[in-house]
């Protein structure tokens, strides 16, 4: 079981590295405002995510209800401990890059909405409320 788990973790780490590379490409496209490139990148990221999810299902079938942390800590296999440590590090990098990209995309959306509001203001008649502020 340990050898199968090591091989599965290695495969997962390769796919996570591919996802990290795609997230880096996404970051560059966001910074360059390449909307059409971002649209083309979505399918690649979804496919990579599906592969990672399938491998995760295989891992769970292999170890059952046991915690992977417990298996690794109770194991005397140094290779298992090394690949597990590597995959955790890659996962942290993926989470960080994903969160960064999400934040940048949200900022761009807010900026675009504000620019659209400036270029195409509301046609509603604005009135003052009892506090002296404009209300819609």
From TrEMBL:
GO biological process: bacterial-type flagellum assembly
Keyword Protein biosynthesis attached: no
Domain of life, source organism: Bacteria
Keyword tags: Bacterial flagellum biogenesis
Gene3D superfamilies assigned to the protein according to its UniProt record, in alphabetical order: FlgN-like
Pfam family, one: FlgN
Stated name of the protein: FlgN family protein
Annotated organism of origin: Clostridium saccharobutylicum DSM 13864
């Amino acid at each position: 079981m340990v050898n199968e788990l090591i091989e599965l973790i290695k495969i997962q780490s390769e796919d996570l590295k591919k996802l990290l590379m795609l997230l880096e490409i996404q970051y560059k496209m966001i910074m360059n405002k390449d909307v059409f490139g971002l649209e083309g990148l979505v399918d690649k990221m979804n496919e990579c995510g599906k592969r990672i999810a399938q491998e995760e299902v295989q891992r769970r079938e292999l170890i059952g209800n046991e915690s992977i942390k417990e298996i690794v800590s109770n194991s005397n296999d140094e290779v298992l401990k090394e690949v597990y440590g590597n995959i955790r590090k890659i996962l942290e990098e993926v989470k960080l890059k994903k969160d960064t990209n999400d934040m940048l995309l949200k900022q761009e959306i807010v900026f675009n909405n504000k620019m659209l509001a400036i270029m195409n203001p509301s046609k509603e008649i604005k009135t003052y409320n009892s506090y002296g502020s404009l209300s819609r």
